[in-house]
Amino acid sequence: MDHHKQRLDRVRLALKKAEVDALLVTDFTNVTYLTGFTGDDSYLLVRRQGEVLLSDPRYTTQLEEECPGLELHIRRPGVPMWQAVVKVLRQSKVVRLGVESDSMTVGLQEKILQRVKNLQIALLNGTVEELRQIKDKHEIAAIRRAAWEAEKAFAAIRATLRPDKTEKQIADELEYQMRVFGARRAAFPSIVGVGPRAALPHATPGQNRIAESDFVLIDWGAYSGLYNSDLTRVLVTGRITPKFERVYRVVLRAQTSAIAAIRPGVTCHDVDAVARKIIADAGYNKYFGHGLGHGLGMAVHESPRLAVKSTAVLRPGMVVTVEPGIYLPGWGGVRLEDDVLVTRNGHEVLTSVPKQLEDVVVQ
Ligand code: ZN
Ligand code: ZN
């Protein structure tokens, strides 16, 4: 409960700075982050003093368990959410209201502006997301847990990989194994791409059998209940071809060099540039068409981004993925992805699936 109070106090500081009376938190993940409540369909109004959670009767028991002591406004069955919001805004005498523009709907905004007299709306996007970038030790432990679940599942499917398995079978088995090891579910639909399909950064697993090509790309992660992990590995099911070896070594060097550059005070685009330069120098600059990585936490993709134009500066407690790739149309793609914590003195890689060239061959 204590860390929720701290987080709420930080939001209140932001309210003061933005000169608003309250922030209406409409992003459910942000509501969870600030209160510990894990249900959906609930908003949180953070006022200069105190906060109130707007929810419905389905959640009353869960609310008592997950956030005892939190002030609640439980709307009656049939009362739409916007009416509850209007009522709480009036009761709280809010004049200047901050909203999260990425999740606030135009419909809700229109209704409350029509019904709450003199209400002014200020767009305060990213206030909670900014706080979420820096993970405390409980959050880091939860990400480690999600990484462990994903890695155990990967080891299990790798041990039973047969050439006649399809992409979809591997994806389904991965998800099942992650759940066996404690995950609530997969963090996102796993990507399993054989050969040329691996050149599509977001291939949907289909009926291709892994023996149809020399290698298969697997991008997967576990959702432990509140936090996520996100990894990518390539497995070779035939023999390592000279072309595969060349591409793989470049991606591996780009990834390990970029990870080595991670420490507090470094700008995200500089980390991206380390990997991008190695890939460009090897002649593949046209074939690395996405950012180097992204923040990872309660959401699979969050701030900060490791990308060409990202001016964010790394700080201790941030967790980012590092995932360079080279995608050659018609041949396939090679990407390696690990999850990296920015520490006070440098970094710590939270994921540990072996990735040297000799590790990728499945016998
Ligand atoms: Zn991934
Ligand atoms: Zn990722």
**CATH class annotation of the largest domain:** Alpha Beta
Query: Which H/E pattern describes the elements?
Result: HEHEEHEHEHEHHHEEEEEHHEEEEEEE
Strand arrangement in the largest pleated sheet: 4-3-2-1-5-6
Quote the average pLDDT: 94
The main pleated sheet reads as:
6 strands, mixed
Distance between the termini: 49 Å
Distinct small-molecule ligands in the complex: zinc ion
Q: What is the CATH fold-level name of the largest domain? A: Creatine Amidinohydrolase
CATH architecture name of the largest domain: Alpha-Beta Complex
Q: Provide the structure class.
A: alpha+beta
Task: State the share of residues found in helices, binned by percent.
Answer: 25-40%
- Find the count of extended strands (DSSP E, 2+ residues): 18
Q: Indicate the proportion of strand residues.
A: 15-25%
Number of domains: 2
CATH superfamily of the largest domain: Creatinase/methionine aminopeptidase superfamily
Rg, rounded, reads 23 Å
Number of helices: 10
Low-pLDDT runs: none
